[in-house]
């Protein structure tokens, strides 16, 4: 039933690119109209044939529903791209749709500068919808499923917000309003900075969603505008912070953002990486301090938050830059935001646990407790986070090896696996780096990377639990 309702929503969303193409006289509006009709019909059939009065889900049903949703939506979202004038194969169309809905930002489309406007707005809309989708999922679904330590936010959520807004629907509505307002403000600022209205809307949707799809092959670098880059940097950061904290700020707690340890750690990671890269470019590459601050701030923020915009080919910045950006790919932003990656709170839990373990080694008889946001971390959260780190590394290695078996070179395979599971967008090197794209990869690699995007977006466990035989027993 839920999948059916979401498919009908996706069908309704196809009306926007259809209207855009119809307005400019592009024949692809028929493709969007037909795809919308098919999607709506399928969704209606699923909803009507599975309609039940009770809306209570078991844990197993929630796992199946979440994973099936994020598989069905890109499968149908790919239809307009597969049958448009772009002449994409269904493999390429599915890869593009999965990259959009998962807010990854990797692309197989060559010649975005000349692509139909309906396709461009559809790609941006997919990322925008995927961004709000992952926020709602992080707030309501993942804590319930106890995925990768997300149960930590089930307690925080109850304490911070539920007293003020007791219904989950109200909270979801407020988050959607905040998300929409940020997008509108970003679009207006882009427009005043020199973008056309069409480009401003597209880039605003993919900036706040930390998705990174652009309307040009050269991404944001095409504009060559420092003001546009600084606007983008600010809103990429805003999209990377917990949206529940914005709700607290609006409800009379202006210090909620600054008092949250996860937010402070996020800015610590981001600020440290930016300063280190600025010093490196100035001292070792003879950049001016102005250029170093401008390009480093934008590109470091883009990679760490998983947005994937680019103004320059940062893989050509020298021997230090490539491994630096490779590490930043995995960090991500805060839980409850639009970002992906490992996420900052897991680094906090890991650090607190390691610190306690070192104290125990020094004082075996002492009693030491790991804390997060000045509260004890439950053992179940520590275990979940440790398991997440192990699985993240193991699956990353398997993805990289799988891509290597398909003939990809070392840099392409390792950075491609990283950018898929961390949902970043561009990889490193000449093939899939900021100056390239994923169109030249074999179909098998695109399907494997699509699976990696799904795993990364749904925090690994949500998908992998379905592969366990014990899940289906009983």
Automatic annotation (TrEMBL):
Keywords: Cell inner membrane, Cell membrane, Ion transport, Membrane, Metal-binding, Potassium, Potassium transport, Transmembrane, Transmembrane helix, Transport. It is found in: Cell inner membrane; Cell membrane. It comes from the Bacteria. One of its GO terms (cellular component) is plasma membrane. GO terms for molecular function: metal ion binding; potassium:chloride symporter activity. InterPro entries: Cat_transpt, TrkH. It is a multi-pass membrane protein. It holds the Pfam family TrkH. The keyword Ion transport applies. Its main location: membrane. The chain crosses the membrane at residues 32-51, 63-83, 125-150, 171-193, 230-250, 262-283, 314-336, 384-406, 447-472. K(+) binds at residues 103-104, 211, 307, 423-424. Low-affinity potassium transport system. Interacts with Trk system potassium uptake protein TrkA. Belongs to the TrkH potassium transport family. This is Trk system potassium uptake protein. It comes from Pacificispira spongiicola.
């Amino acid at each position: 039933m839920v999948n059916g309702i979401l498919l009908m929503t996706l069908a309704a969303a196809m009306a926007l690119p259809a209207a855009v193409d119809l307005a400019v006289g592009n024949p692809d509006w028929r493709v969007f109209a037909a795809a919308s009709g098919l999607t709506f019909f399928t969704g209606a059939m699923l909803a009507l044939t599975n309609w039940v009065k009770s809306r209570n889900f078991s844990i197993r049903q929630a796992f199946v529903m979440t994973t099936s949703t994020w598989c069905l939506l890109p499968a149908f979202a790919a239809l307009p791209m597969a049958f448009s004038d772009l002449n994409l194969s269904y493999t390429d169309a599915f890869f593009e749709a999965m990259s959009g809905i998962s807010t990854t930002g990797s692309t197989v489309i060559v010649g975005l500068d000349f692509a139909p406007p309906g396709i461009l707005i559809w790609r941006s809309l997919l990322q925008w919808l995927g961004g709000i989708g992952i926020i709602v999922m992080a707030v309501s679904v993942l804590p319930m499923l106890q995925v990768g330590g997300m149960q930590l936010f089930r307690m925080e959520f109850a304490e911070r917000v539920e007293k003020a807004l007791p219904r989950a629907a109200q909270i979801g509505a407020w988050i959607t309003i905040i998300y929409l307002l940020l997008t509108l403000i970003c679009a207006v600022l882009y427009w005043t900075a020199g973008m056309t209205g069409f480009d401003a809307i597209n880039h605003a949707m993919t900036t706040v969603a930390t998705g990174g799809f652009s309307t040009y092959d050269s991404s944001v670098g095409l504009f060559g505008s420092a003001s546009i880059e600084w606007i983008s940097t600010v809103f990429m950061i805003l999209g990377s912070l917990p949206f529940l904290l914005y709700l607290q700020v609006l409800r009379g707690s202006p210090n909620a953002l600054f008092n949250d340890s996860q937010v402070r750690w996020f800015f610590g990671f981001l600020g440290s990486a930016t300063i280190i890269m600025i010093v490196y470019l100035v001292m070792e590459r003879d950049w001016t301090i102005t250029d170093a601050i401008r390009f480093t701030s934008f590109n470091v923020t883009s990679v760490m938050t998983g947005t994937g915009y680019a103004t320059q080919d940062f893989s050509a910045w020298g021997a230090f830059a490539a491994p630096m950006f490779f590490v930043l790919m995995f960090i991500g932003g805060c839980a409850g935001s639009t970002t992906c990656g490992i996420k900052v709170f897991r680094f906090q839990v890991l650090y607190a646990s390691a610190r306690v373990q070192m104290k125990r080694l020094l004082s075996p008889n002492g009693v030491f407790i790991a804390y997060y946001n000045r509260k004890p971390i439950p053992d179940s959260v520590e275990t979940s986070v440790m398991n997440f780190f192990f699985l993240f590394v193991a699956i990353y290695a398997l993805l990289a090896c799988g891509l290597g078996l398909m003939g990809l070179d070392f840099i392409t395979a390792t950075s491609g696996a990283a950018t898929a599971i961390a949902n970043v967008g561009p990889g490193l090197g000449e093939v899939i780096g900021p100056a390239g794209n994923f169109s030249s990869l074999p179909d098998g690699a695109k399907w494997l990377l699509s699976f990696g995007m799904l795993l990364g977006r749904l925090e690994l466990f949500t998908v992998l639990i379905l592969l366990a035989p014990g899940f289906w027993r009983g």
